Amino acid sequence: MQEILELLENNARLSTEELAVLTNKSVDEVETIMAELKSKGIIVGWRPIINWEKTNREDVSALIELRIRPQKGCGFDALAQRISAFDQVKNLYLMSGGFDLGVFVEGKNIKDIALFVSEHLSQLDGVISTATHFVLKVYKYEGIDFFDPQCDRREVYS
Amino acid sequence: MRPIEEALNPTLKNIKPSMIRRFFDIAAEMDDVISLGIGEPDFTTPWAIREEGIRSLEKGLTHYTSNAGITALREELCRYFKRKYDLHYTKDQALITVGGSEAIDLTIRALVSPGDEVIVPEPSFVCYTPLASLAGATPVVIPCKEKDNFCLTAEDLKAAITEKTKLLILPFPNNPTGAVMSREQLMEIAEVLKDTDIFVLSDEIYSELVYTDTPHIPFSGIEGMYERTIIVNGFSKSYAMTGWRLGYALGPQPLIALMTKLHQFAIMSAPTQSQFAAIRALKECDGDVIHMRDSYNQRRLFIYRALLDMGFSCFEPGGAFYIFPNITSSGLSSEEFAERLLREQHVAVIPGNAFGPAGEGHVRICYASSVENLKEAVRRMQVFMDSLKK
């Protein structure tokens, strides 16, 4: 199972047949494992890794540090669930350290994000403070170096 | 002054140049070549090792090291052989060289005298017979056959031995076939050698890339072979460090001392940064080695299956990162096959006869390439094979 996950993490486009060959398993075995991975919610989606900076899209993203008040009985989870419901929120983490929630948001421009913070996030019950940090440039994403994405530096024959 | 061509060393001049040169020129004209002609890992050196190289520069460690290599590295190497193979070596039995290739050259030159014979099983890495010739020895080639899984058989070895035989080259896990010799097979070889004075150069550069159930066995670990065996290995393949140029020889102390003398004249010492980096590799990078091996193994399974599906007869390699399909069904020679595949489908492979006449009828495919690349290469090979049928 682990081996299949690692292969897919690097290349989600591998077919069941290819996975079977690569892991020395039968196609049936791989299909069973894949069904299990999906039903258990271990594999939750499929998508390419896009360097948007190379396209015309001019969206901006930001990390918002959120300090929140834990609620009786459910701690941080209830408010986190509410925040995750916003479309603008792309990643959401409970953090140790100086703040509680790390909220990664995306918007069309800086104003868009500013409005989202001032009119939505900061006004939620339980939010104590926000600190917004805009992303200026993506150097590495999901383990992929955007400086130099996996080029082969070897000679044709060696 | 007479023309320079007449002055050049005739032995060296008469050694056939690598046929790959011509292919280089063809490939240079193309911008979409998928190269499976490569003889090196597709991984970059693990970061911990690179970091150690950088650190050595920051500390100003930019001088020669002792000729044999820094003591800490040689000691670490001995510890590595102890923990990995339970083999005892001392630092005086270790010489750090510029790649495994230098260690091969030194071993041959330090052992062999004019008139001696050096037994070379083929197909194998291209340097053994030229180096034996340059040392004034006569290379005696044993063709390893596909029916024997490209292994050296005791029978063939026995038949090749004469009173002049000084050295046997044992190139396993093998480049280009991927053949691996089992303990039983190695014991049969040992049985042939035990009452002779023949030395063994065991080129084990692919020792970490073995996919069979039983792990690699250094030839010096076979009973009775320790005293006559020179292990040649290096960091290039196991730690993805080809560009660092670092290898080593382990063997009988008097021979290592003599090789060190030669190394001192020609090289002085192996690159200092590489040596410091290699200590870290031996100490901390077992996990990286396993990760890379697992990844090569996946691709080995993939390409092996794909070649069978295409209808090639193909030996299943147990080691290294090469596969050596039999291409005789195409009706082409190895060179024709490789050249036409490159010209027509822009896939680079190496003709099998580049590794000795015994490799004719095969091509070497290096599968240290991404699965995406392998898939596309397989697709193009299929188009090529279909075009031959028309």
Count of separate DSSP helical elements of chain A:
5
Count of spatially separate domains of chain B: 2
User: So what's the overall shape of chain B?
Assistant: globular
Q: Which geometry of chain A do the CA atoms define?
A: extended
The description of the largest β-sheet of chain B is: 7 strands, mixed
Structural class of chain B: alpha/beta
Helix fraction of chain A by DSSP (H/I, runs of at least 4): 25-40%
Our Rg estimate of chain B from Cα atoms comes to 21 Å
Query: What is the total tally of β strands of chain B?
Result: 12
Strand content of chain A: 15-25%
Task: Please state the second-level CATH architecture of the largest domain in chain B.
Answer: 3-Layer(aba) Sandwich
Percentage of residues assigned to helices of chain B: 40-55%
Range of strand content of chain B: 5-15%
Give an overview in words.
The complex is a heterodimer of chains A (158) and B (390). Chain A is α+β, with helices and mostly antiparallel strands and 158 residues long. Chain A has two domains: 2-39; 52-141, 2-Layer Sandwich (Alpha-Beta Plaits), CATH 3.30.70. Chain A is 31% helix and 22% strand. Chain A contains five helices and six strands, in the order αααβαββαβββ. Chain A has helices spanning 2-10, 16-23, 27-39, 77-84, 110-120; strands at 60-68, 89-94, 101-107, 127-134, 140-141, 144-145. In chain A, the strands form two sheets. In chain A, strands 2-3-1-4 form a four-stranded antiparallel beta sheet. A two-stranded antiparallel ribbon of chain A has the order 5-6. Chain A is extended. Chain A starts with a helix and ends in a 13-residue tail after the last strand. The model of chain A has no long low-confidence stretch (mean pLDDT 93). Chain B is an alpha/beta fold. Chain B folds into two domains: 4-45 and 287-389, Aspartate Aminotransferase, domain 1; 47-284, Aspartate Aminotransferase, domain 2. Chain B has 14 helices and twelve strands. A seven-stranded mixed beta sheet of chain B has the order 2-8-7-6-5-3-4, with helices on both faces. In chain B, helix 6 packs across helix 10 (253-266). The mean pLDDT of chain B is 96. The interface between A and B is medium-sized, with 16 and 27 residues.
